Amino acid sequence: MKLLDQITSYAQGLPLALKVLGCSLCDRNADYWTDMLNQLKKFPNEEIQEVLQISFRGLKDNEKDIFLDIACFFRGRGKTFVRKILESCGFTVVSGIENLIDKSLITLTRDNRLEMHDLLQEMGWQIVRKTSKEPGKRSRLWEQKDISHILKWETGAQEVEGIFFNLSGLEEMNFTTKAFSQMTNLRLLEIYRSNLRDTGGKMQCKLHISDDFKFHYDELRYLHWDEYPCESLPSDFESENLVHFCMPRSHLTQLWKGQKVFGHLEFVDVSYSQYLKKTPDFSRATNLEVLVLKGCTNLRKVHPSLGYLSKLILLNMENCINLEHLPSIRWLVSLRTFILSGCSKLEKLQEVPQHMPYLSKLCLDGTAITDFSGWSELGNFQENSGNLDCLSELNSDDSTIRQQHSSSVVLRNHNASPSSAPRRSRFISPHCTLTSLTYLNLSGTSIIHLPWNLERLSMLKRLELTNCRRLQALPVLPSSIECMNASNCTSLELISPQSVFKRFGGFLFGNCFKLRNCHSKMEHDVQSVASHAVPGTWRDTYAIWHPNVAIPFSTVFPGSEIPDWFRHHSQGHEINIEVPPDWYINSNFLGFALSAVMAPQHDSRAWCMYCDLDTHDLNSNSNSHRICSFFGSWTYQLQRTPIESDHVWLAYVPSFFSFSREKWSHIKFSFSSSGGCVVKSCGFCPVYIKGTSDEGDYSSGIAFDEPRRHAAKPSRISYQ
Asked: Which segment of the chain is annotated as a signal peptide (predicted)?
């Protein structure tokens, strides 16, 4: 049976392969099967390959090249990435890929990656191998032994178009100019280590590169070299055709010297190149779209030409900790993502663009920026209405925001003395049209009041306010809010009762001990969420991450008592309820409200609440469900927010979320908390429609605990 599984696995469900192998193995003994399987692993079945090649032979030359590049180099890579590289090679890629998909030679995954059957990849490999017995005369090289051979014996010829060399497992390797001297048509070069993580980032293979090392760049489109060991590139390194340049963790101190022609260069990534001291002259790389300098900890000088890259879409300089100055960036009008997080010595941005219509992410956390007088768009939305409509993320973590004058915003380190802190932070004008902002991070600031018109940010989904220890009140928040973390806001006293939360989400008020109106506010929020909950916005959105876990609307705040509107409560971590036959009426039952009081222990680090729901129906059938308080990045937030005393967890789970519609006779809720917290008490409350309600005020039609025998029609609840 094991051999059969191995043969089936080799065929991967391909009908042709199963048919051919079945004919070969029929009436044979186990030893024959074992021998055949070993041969297949070394040498693919010729009959299968011959039939598969019928489809390949019917392709146009352009499509054959695309197929072979994918089989040898780009299987599993993103379609957009591959398209860009292969188009730069002169291939007609869009129609070519579509034809390959139509002929079932390649497939497209859900996340838009190019895949193919193992046997089809083997066919591609065999086609390349059969072009020559000598590896140095083949168009594509991907096997370690073949590449090692041609580098050792310097047999690479002009037929070589691509090399993808995995250094993992090699102890020593020589790179000489002579070994590459005949490869005049090289267009794809990647040198990497597949076991990078397993080796702790230490180079296992010792590379010997001659001082005069160079290779042919004229036809080069794609260059990726992990941990490039030299301090500089070859002196004549220049390529009009190069599109993609990637040398992460390199030993480079600079890229190229002087002006070099890189007319088609679109992507540069030298992240974590800790010896890099300055950027090159980009004045002849005017098509550059992506520049990644993340983790270049010794970078001190940025060439002024960077500020004139008008097509630049992404600029990532995260954790360039020695960078003190940026040149004028006034011409970076195409920027969508601008990351300066962790540039702790950077104090100023000067001459920024007056119009940045595409900016969607701006990260300035961890910088020393104190002056934004040149950036009027961040300081005065009234004068520049609409210029930042595409801004979807503003991160000013660990900074102090204050209004300096009508056209500037000042950011300072959050350790500023209380006397210098602002009385009010007003950075959104009454005419703000920041309609695309979805993420706002003000964590660690000395802000006292949020802007009164924060509710104008109609697309805002996530609000981070952690460690805003001077924040006293929350104004009316946008109804679009899904997640908010206000933990450790120790001065927070009030949450506007006019804020209406209609969406799935989580709201953290850990260690906010001055909150006064939390119990009544949260009761109102449960009513609001219950009346607006619909399957499409709750269950479907998160099922792909947690198909077996119900994730409710959930909130946490200081307290040691289950809210008084919970009629069913119990000491300890469990509550058992025997329900009457009519408790569940389809037309008016909405869901459950759950609550638990948790207490930290001496070794408490953080927490995450879980609830196991066990049910029995009238026929004694049982079922179980797990309800989790938060998920994904929120779990990480909780790990950073240990609670200091008793806290109340309150959640709402709609009836359509993972629960069957059988009539239950008995329900048991079991609560538990991770991270060293214990559950002291717990409660459960069914939520129903009650009577009729005015249109638009759905929460007035919500009742806790009592079912109605003559329920209102479902149409009285408006799902929005």
From this structure: none
